[in-house]
Structure to design on (149 residues):
């Protein structure tokens, strides 16, 4: 697929992810642990010998993440799919624009991608959508743009 990827800028907290997948297609959404009223994104994090489940805030630009493990701030973690344990880390050599740490990647429907920084406490995120009109339902209402994915 050679479709052009577009980075769009969306006001913080105007959008939430409804679907995110590991590279093997397992859903990462966990409706049993809502954050900000939406199903959270469940991943495994590992730092040194410590490994545990973390629920990520599905609201873009919001970081009310729930850590079931004690991982200090400012360390670089590894992230895995909780179902198949596939690494979520990008392997193309790109790093965070801000702190130069490795990046993780969530797969979204229709070729979209969400990239984020693997350094705990660094909140660099980029949403990449192939076809904004088709993927971003842009349902305005209640001051919220809902990502219809
Ligand atoms: Zn998986
Ligand atoms: Zn970073």
């Amino acid at each position: 697929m050679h479709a052009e990827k577009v980075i769009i800028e969306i006001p913080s907290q105007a959008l939430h992810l409804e679907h995110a997948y590991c590279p093997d297609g397992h859903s990462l959404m966990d409706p049993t642990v809502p954050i900000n009223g939406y199903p959270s994104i469940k991943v495994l994090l590992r730092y040194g010998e410590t490994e545990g489940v973390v629920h990520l805030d599905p609201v873009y630009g919001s970081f009310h993440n729930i850590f079931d493990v004690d991982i200090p701030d400012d360390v670089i973690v590894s992230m895995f799919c909780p179902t198949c344990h596939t690494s979520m880390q990008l392997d193309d050599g790109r790093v965070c624009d801000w702190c130069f740490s490795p990046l993780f990647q969530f797969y979204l429907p229709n070729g979209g991608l969400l990239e984020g920084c693997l350094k705990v406490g660094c909140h660099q995120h980029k949403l990449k959508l192939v076809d904004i009109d088709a993927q971003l339902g842009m349902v305005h209402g209640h001051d919220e743009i809902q990502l219809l994915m």
